[in-house]
């Protein structure tokens, strides 16, 4: 299933393995890799890119521009969890750093995260602060999912309309915690999470059934195994959320809604459901089903509006816009 160049024996001494799963994100992946080598950790490290059967020549770009990267290529699209799990088997570092392809590494972030883990032996994983492209703080640190998270999470209509309400602040920890100091978290985003190698050996692989909630599930399993999860505001990474190839087509945007609600149900059954006949099970099914229908209708209306606006724009200005090359936009943070 996997074709590529495997790490050789001389990488046994590395202290950090950086794993990046990629799907049709060539330009963003190029920027991500460039930022890593522009702002590398002070210790020996390796970078493993798993290309998930991209059609945009991502693999060729990595081979040409970053020959020092260990490149694994999936023969078919197997999604995020399985791609990372394949890299887990090859990672040699004391620490394993999962990083999204739509991120930009800022100076010192990896060193700060490794130093924190070195100084806190009970912490199994640490997440960095994530910034949006405009420099605002991303909602990447939360309590573990539950019924309240469904009502007041980052995706909920209530939170979008009233982002500072006390219930959302209780779940979205960046809204209520001191952002100048590290703090314990239910879970942190897998867009930028550093995990001890020994934790991976103990807890195991990512749950390949999940797309959304895969980070919440893994952090929950860390907590259950006796490890702590922390958020480290002093380590900063820019994250161009959902621009790495997963939301570029209408089909994938609708599919993401299905995957989110399916993942929510799987997480609930795995970690919270005591009996299929428990009343909470029926409430969860009704609640998730209703939310799913509303989300589909909202996305449909958004797609129709954007399609209409696009046709109107083309009618008003029929001149073609031509772009050549790939653009990597740098921001000062």
Total of domains = 2
Provide the gyration radius in Å: 20 Å
Q: State the end-to-end CA separation.
A: 40 Å
Given the structure, what is the number of helices? Answer: 11
What is the element string, with H for helices and E for strands? EEHEHEHEEHEEHHHEEEHHEHH
Stated plainly, the CATH topology of the largest domain is called: Spore Coat Polysaccharide Biosynthesis Protein SpsA, Chain A
CATH superfamily of the largest domain: Spore Coat Polysaccharide Biosynthesis Protein SpsA, Chain A
| Overall CATH class of the largest domain | Alpha Beta
CATH architecture of the largest domain: Alpha-Beta Complex
Kindly estimate the percentage of residues that lie in beta strands according to DSSP: 15-25%
Low-pLDDT windows of residues: 317-331
**Portion of residues within helices:** 40-55%
Largest sheet: 10 strands, mixed
Number of β-strand runs: 12
What structural class do the secondary elements suggest?
A: alpha/beta
User: Shape, please?
Assistant: globular
**Mean pLDDT reading:** 84
């Amino acid at each position: 299933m996997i074709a590529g160049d495997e790490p050789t024996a001389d990488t046994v001494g590395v202290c950090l393995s950086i794993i990046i799963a990629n799907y049709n994100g060539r330009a963003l992946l190029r920027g991500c890799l460039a930022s890593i080598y522009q702002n590398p950790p002070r210790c020996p490290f390796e970078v493993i890119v798993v290309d998930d059967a991209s059609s945009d020549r991502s693999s060729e770009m990595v081979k040409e521009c970053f020959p020092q990267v260990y490149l694994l290529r999936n023969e078919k699209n197997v999604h995020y969890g399985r791609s990372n799990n394949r890299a887990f088997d090859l990672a040699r570092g004391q620490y394993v750093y999962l990083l999204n392809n739509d991120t930009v590494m800022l100076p010192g972030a990896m060193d700060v995260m490794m130093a924190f883990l070195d100084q806190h032996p009970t912490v199994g994983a640490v997440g960095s602060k994530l910034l949006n492209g405009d420099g605002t703080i991303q909602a990447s640190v939360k309590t573990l999912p539950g019924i309240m998270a469904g009502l007041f999470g980052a995706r909920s209509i209530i939170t979008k309309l009233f982002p500072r309400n006390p219930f959302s602040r209780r779940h979205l920890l960046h809204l209520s915690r001191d952002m100048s100091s590290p703090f314990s978290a239910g879970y942190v985003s897998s867009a930028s999470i550093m995990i001890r190698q020994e934790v991976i050996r103990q807890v195991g692989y990512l749950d390949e059934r999940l797309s959304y909630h895969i980070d919440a599930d893994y952090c929950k399993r860390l907590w259950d195994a006796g490890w702590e999860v922390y958020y480290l505001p002093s380590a900063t990474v820019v994250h161009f959320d959902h621009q790495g190839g997963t939301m570029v087509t209408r089909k994938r945007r609708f599919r993401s809604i299905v995957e989110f609600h399916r993942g929510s149900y799987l997480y609930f059954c795995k970690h919270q459901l005591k009996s299929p006949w428990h009343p909470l099970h029926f409430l969860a099914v009704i609640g998730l089903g209703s939310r799913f229908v509303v989300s589909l209708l909202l996305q449909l209306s958004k797609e129709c509006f954007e399609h209409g606006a696009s046709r109107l724009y083309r009618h008003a200005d029929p001149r073609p816009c031509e772009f050549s090359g790939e653009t990597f936009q740098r921001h000062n943070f």
